[in-house]
Specification:
Layout (H helix, E strand, L loop, with lengths): L7 H6 L6 H10 L4 H40 L9 H20 L9
Helix pairs in contact: 3-4
Length: about 110
């Protein structure tokens, strides 16, 4: 989290003892209390991961089309696998792993 982000949980925990300036100093030095990492940073990380997976979902059709076009240029001799095929497979694997780990699709969550 950036130093300009408010953390109501930590503020409540400190009973208002730390002003915004003191909190920024604690964040900069890495001494900001753990509840912020557990509640704020973990949530921010999850949001960023969903955003990145959304980008992968958006990119997959384009990568697959590029793979197909690359095979058109070789006269559909269809080499076993090229760089585009490998990239598409890696994207599919990442999206599949995300579903398995989370126990379902995250496509209904906001990006």
């Amino acid at each position: 989290m950036g130093p300009d982000v408010e953390c109501p949980r930590t503020d409540a925990m400190l009973d208002g003892a730390a002003s915004a300036v003191e909190r920024h100093v604690m964040q900069a030095t890495g001494t900001h209390p753990a509840p912020c990492a557990r509640f704020c940073e973990a949530t921010a990380f999850g949001i960023e991961m969903r955003r990145l997976r959304g980008l992968l979902r958006d990119a997959l059709p384009h990568v697959e089309a590029s793979a197909e076009a690359s095979h058109m240029t070789d006269g559909f001799r269809r080499q076993p696998e090229n760089d585009f095929d490998r990239l598409a497979n890696r994207i599919r694997a990442e999206l599949h792993n995300a579903k398995v780990v989370r126990g379902g699709s995250d496509s209904d969550r906001p990006a």
